[in-house]
Specification:
elongated, 9-stranded mixed β-sheet, alpha/beta, Rossmann fold, 18 strands, binds adenosine-5'-diphosphate
């Protein structure tokens, strides 16, 4: 049943979705996927949504001939800008903040080619936030006054502060946290250069340990705060995952909502996946064995259909618990099992996984690099997926793996705790079990969970049920979109 969030006798709710990256035009991480998937799903449930994005060089290249909608004059230390209109591949309208001196350059959206933050990021995202706020004023410059301004991450998070001091009617605002570790910290003088009143540089404002923080501005001034899973929403109200913002987040807990991300269910679908040798679905799970054989061959693992194969895909960082995986490699081999790891990241983690592979030829394979097609083959070819993250705001791979009939073994944190149901007698019986959870971030706890998975895998009928439960789950954006729509409707009513 399609629920429409368009109020009777009124246009649909208008949502301006301000984001510093959006697939397929510009991507450094998961936020680009959210910015492609969520607005399209919001549109499908009946909202009028537009995506606001800086006109970076690759964005301009993707939409030649974007037409001009409005112009914004320079103010304080911010240069003039134009607003261009284009259409995303999903059909959603994109509004581009065009200011060539700030955005039309070689390099990434946040950093130069050498990996250093752009020195003028305060101005680049100050302008972006300022334009977002001006568009959110009522009646506003383009005849489309949004009901809600949804600001993603620190780059858009100054907009609620601009709105607070605008002195005019405006949209309600949501500050959405995808990564609390990036806080947009700049010198105190930046406040005046951005044209904000000095009074907001205070503990009850956007001051954060002697600097100004774009993110804190959003967390303090927005009408609501959203993050990407209910468990992460609780975890960030305490140390250590609050990254210094825990007291503010705890004080605002009634305005803080955790809504689990969706995934791109057309890109990640074993029934249509071009990157695997034999496509499969719930009724033909046995065809998954072709992917296992292909993965073993591709990575130089022994061609043993009867040996359990654990897969890992992810950034090689402390966050992802790659060191825990390295610590249990030899124990996995002794089960007996095989391990296939695909990832890139910090040198020390890459080295420890690579040397593990060398120590166990034919049993452990490490592929250091970024390879999307191989990521699909690991999801399909592994029997189970390991994801022992120390923290995980939402996480995608555990959802992909359930969809691919590859039960995940995950640490009970953030979105992992919210999207995987631990196998117990009760959850097997009621049809909800989809994987294995463990609590402590230790090699011992990870191995105990992997061992439980191994025992379960040996019981083929049980394992098949576990696979089926995961494959039957709906991880599409639709459910998230309905939750966001309910949040927006509430804000529009109460603002
Ligand atoms: P995070 O955004 O913290 O890195 P997620 O699980 O949310 O973690 O998303 C990571 C995404 O990047 C997934 O789509 C995953 O498959 C992909 N990915 C990570 N590392 C690699 C790699 N080395 N090769 C291919 N894809 C990768």
């Amino acid at each position: 049943m399609l629920i429409s969030y368009a109020p009777v006798n009124r246009d649909p709710l208008r949502i301006l979705f301000a984001t510093p990256e959006c697939g397929p035009w510009i991507k450094t991480g998961g936020l680009a996927d959210v910015s492609a998937g969520l607005p399209a799903a919001l549109r499908a449930v009946g909202l009028d949504v537009r995506v606001l994005l800086p006109a970076y060089r690759p964005v301009l290249a993707a939409v030649p001939g974007a037409r001009e909608l409005a112009a914004f004059a320079a103010s304080a230390g911010l240069p003039a800008a134009r607003l261009l209109a284009a259409t995303l591949p999903s059909g959603v309208t994109a509004l581009l903040v065009d200011c060539p001196v700030l955005y039309d350059r070689e390099g990434g959206p946040y950093q130069d080619g050498a990996g250093a933050d752009w020195a003028d990021n305060w101005r680049r995202f100050g302008l972006f936030s300022s334009v977002a706020a001006q568009l959110a004023l009522h009646p506003g410059p383009i005849g489309w006054p949004p009901d809600v301004l949804h600001c993603n991450d620190w780059q858009a998070a100054l907009a609620p502060a601009f709105l607070r001091f605008a002195g005019a009617p405006h949209a309600a605002s949501v500050a959405a946290i995808h990564n609390l570790a990036f806080q947009g910290l700049f010198a105190p003088e930046t406040v005046a250069a951005l044209g904000l009143p000095r009074a907001c540089y205070a503990m009850d404002g956007l001051e954060f340990h002697g600097r100004m923080s774009f993110l804190k501005a959003g967390l303090y001034y927005a009408d609501a705060i959203a993050t990407v899973s209910p468990t992460y929403a609780r975890e960030i109200q305490r140390e250590p995952l609050g990254f210094g913002m825990q007291d503010l987040l705890a004080a605002r807990r009634d305005s803080l909502r955790g809504i689990l991300n969706g995934i791109d269910t057309s890109e990640w679908d074993p029934a249509t996946d071009a990157a695997i040798p034999a496509r499969y679905d719930l009724r033909r799970i046995e065809r998954k064995t072709a992917s296992k054989a292909a993965l073993q061959q591709r990575l130089g693992l022994a061609a043993e259909p009867g040996t359990m194969l654990f897969g890992v895909v992810g950034r090689m960082t402390e966050q992802k618990g790659i060191d825990l995986i390295a610590a249990i490699g030899a124990q996995l081999v002794a089960l007996p099992a095989q391990l296939a790891v695909l990832g890139a990241g910090e040198w020390r983690h890459e080295q420890s996984i690579a040397s593990l592979g060398r120590a166990h030829p034919g049993r452990i394979a490490a592929l250091i690099g970024f390879d999307e097609a191989l990521a699909h083959l690991v999801e399909a070819g592994a029997d189970a997926f390991l994801m022992p993250s120390r923290f995980e705001p939402c996480g995608l791979n555990q959802m992909y793996s359930q969809r691919y009939g590859t039960p995940p073994v995950v640490r009970a944190t953030g979105g992992l705790a919210d999207s995987v149901v631990d196998l117990t007698d009760a959850t097997l019986e009621n049809g909800t079990a989809t994987g294995f959870l463990f609590r402590e971030p230790t090699a011992q706890a990870l191995f105990a969970a992997a061992q439980r998975a191994h025992v379960a895998w040996l019981d083929r009928p049980l394992w098949r049920r576990l696979q089926q439960h995961g494959m039957a789950r709906d991880f599409s954006w639709d459910a998230s979109a309905r939750e966001y729509a309910a949040l927006y409707a509430h804000l529009a009513r109460t603002h």
